[in-house]
């Protein structure tokens, strides 16, 4: 398990830096466009689109590492009530459902991008093919699938190697009781 985590660490860092770069590009171009509008009474629609699309690229690129950090959106009301192996099994079920959702979204988004490509659809400014911003969706969903599989492996590993905390507490209590008897 540690080999998998160490080999994915470079990908995590790369995706994090890419997301940060995309968000920085978006902010800088937005400031540039505001300055151009304020000082020169001119605005570029392409720059506004690049700002929007770079945010989308950054968000979808960082989707996978968020899954690994367990920071994805999930309802954890039940999760907070569970403990031990039951909690690990619940995590596994959530990871499997997440993988199914990402797989479905990856497949449908590939079809969507393909249809946009075949229609030769252009953005609002007319200068960017809609394939460029929408290709982020299948890429992000593929990364989500990849990280979901890693999460499933981690969950299975936790189920079969981690002891139930209640069992550990009982063992410690029994040891203390034996020590008090002696």
Q: Any overview of this molecule?
A:
This protein is mainly alpha-helical and 182 residues long. It contains 8 helices and no strands. The chain has helices at 2-40, 45-61, 63-68, 77-81, 84-119, 131-134, 136-161, 165-181. Helix 2 (45-61) runs parallel beside helix 7 (136-161). It is elongated, with a radius of gyration of 23 Å. The two termini are 41 Å apart. 17% of the residues are buried. The mean pLDDT is 84.
How is the main sheet built? none
Measured by DSSP, the beta-strand proportion falls in under 5%
Topology, number of strands:
0
Number of helices: 8
**Order of H and E elements:** HHHHHHHH
The radius of gyration over CA amounts to: 23 Å
How would you summarize this macromolecular structure in one to three sentences?
This protein is mostly helical. Helix content is 82%, strand content 0%.
Key traits:
8 helices; 182 residues; single chain; 0% strand; mainly alpha
List the helices and strands and how they pair.
Blueprint: H1 2-40, H2 45-61, H3 63-68, H4 77-81, H5 84-119, H6 131-134, H7 136-161, H8 165-181
């Amino acid at each position: 398990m540690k080999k998998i985590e160490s080999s994915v660490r470079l990908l995590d860092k790369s995706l994090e830096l890419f997301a940060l770069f995309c968000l920085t590009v978006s902010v800088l171009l937005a400031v540039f466009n505001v300055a151009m509008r304020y000082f020169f009474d001119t605005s570029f629609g392409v720059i506004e689109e690049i700002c929007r699309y770079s945010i989308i690229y950054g968000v979808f690129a960082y989707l996978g590492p968020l899954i690994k950090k367990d920071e994805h959106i999930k309802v954890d009301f039940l999760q907070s009530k569970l403990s031990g192996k039951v909690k690990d099994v619940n995590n596994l079920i959530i990871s499997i459902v997440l993988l199914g959702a990402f797989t479905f979204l990856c497949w449908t988004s590939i079809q969507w991008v393909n249809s946009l490509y075949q229609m030769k659809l252009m953005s609002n400014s007319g200068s960017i093919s809609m394939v460029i911003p929408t290709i982020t969706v299948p890429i992000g969903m593929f990364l989500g699938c990849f990280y979901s599989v890693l999460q499933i492996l981690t969950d299975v590993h936790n189920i079969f190697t981690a002891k139930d905390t209640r069992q550990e507490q009982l063992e410690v209590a029994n040891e203390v009781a034996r020590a008090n008897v002696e």
